[in-house]
Amino acid sequence: MSNYFAVCARGVEPVLEHELRSLGISQTKSLFSGVAFEGEIDDLYRTNMALRTATRVLKPVAEFIARDFDALYRGVRKIDMYELFRVDQTFRVDVNLVQSTMTHSQFAAQKIKDAIVDQFRQRSDGKLRPSVDLKNPQIVFNVFVSGPHVTFALDASGESLHRRHYREGAGEAPMKEALAAAIVLLSDWDRESPVYDPMCGSGTLLIEAMMIAQNIAPNLNRTFSFQNWREYDADRFNAIREELRGKQLMPKLRGFGMEVSPRVATTARKNIAAAGLDKFIEIKTGDFRRVRHTQDSGLVIVNPPYGERMDEVENLKHLYRELGDHIKQDCQGCTASIFTGNLELRKFVGLRTKERILLYNGAIEGRLLKYNLY
How far apart (Å, rounded) are the C-alpha atoms in residues 115 and 134? Predict the structure, then answer.
C-alpha cells in the first residue's frame, strides 16, 4: 500500500472523498483542498481515470522541515532521485508556498531543480544531468510548503485532470470541468430524469451531468505522468481502463440547454459532439426569458454570470430575478441548483433555498443554492 493525495477545489473535499469510497478505497482522510488516501498501484491508475472532482493525484515521497532556501536545497538532496526517475527523462518542479518564510515560489523551484541536478552530476562525476522541460515534462514533482513543513511528491497526473479534452471552445467565463462535476454530484439528481440548463454557455454542466448519468470515466482517453514512472505496469493500466469502459451505462434521459449567444451555442454543440454526447443533449439558441421551456421533473442546473463592475451587478439583479421566476413558473416538480460567485445576487432569485453549500471557483467564494420546486 502507498500513500496518495487527490487535490480538489476548496469545498469539494466531501464530494471527492465520497468518490474515492465509491471506487473501493476505504482508507481516506479529508484535508484542506484534497483527500489523502491509501491504495495499491491499481488504485492510482483507477483514480486518475475515474475521479471527476479531483484536479490531480500526488504520491508523497518525502517530508522534511525547511525554513529557508538553503534548508530546502539540503532536504531535497537527501531524497534518492535515482529511485524516482532516470537521468534521460525530462522533469519539472511545481511549488506551492503557504505561510512560509520563503516567499518566492520560482526561486524555490530553482533551488529544488539545482538539488535534483546536482545529485545526478555528483553520482556521475559531473558527466550526466537530467533536463528541465516546463511544457511537456516526463516527470513532474509537486512540492507543497506550509510554514516550515515541506512535502515532496510525484505528480501522477501531469496535465490537470479537469481537462477532459472535449472542450473545443468556451464562453466568456468557463467553469472548470471538475467543479461542474462536483455541482452535479451535490445536486440530489437521480441520474434518470431530464436535466436542463437555461444559461448553458459552452455546455460544461450538461456534459458533466450526462457523463455521470452514463458512468463514463472522465479521463479514459489521455496519458498520465505516472506512465513514465519506473514501476509503471502497462498491462495493469490497460486492464483497468477496459474495466472502466465496461461499466458505462445507457440510461434513457436527455439534457437540454438554452444559450442566448449563437456563437457560444455553436461552441456548446461542438463540445457536446467532441464528448460523444450529441445524441443525448440538445442546445437551443435563445433567451430563456423569451423562448419558453417547460419541464415538470428532473434537475434544473445553472451557473449564471457573477458580474465584476457595479453597473454589471445592477443589470444582473434583474437577470437573477427573471431566472427565479422562470424556474418557479416553468419548472414545477423539478429540483434546482444555482451556483453563483456573487453572494449579493443570490437573494434576487426570490426562491426559498433548501440548502446552501460553500464552494470555490478558483479564488472566488461561491454558493451552490439548492431548491425544491413545488
Answer: 17
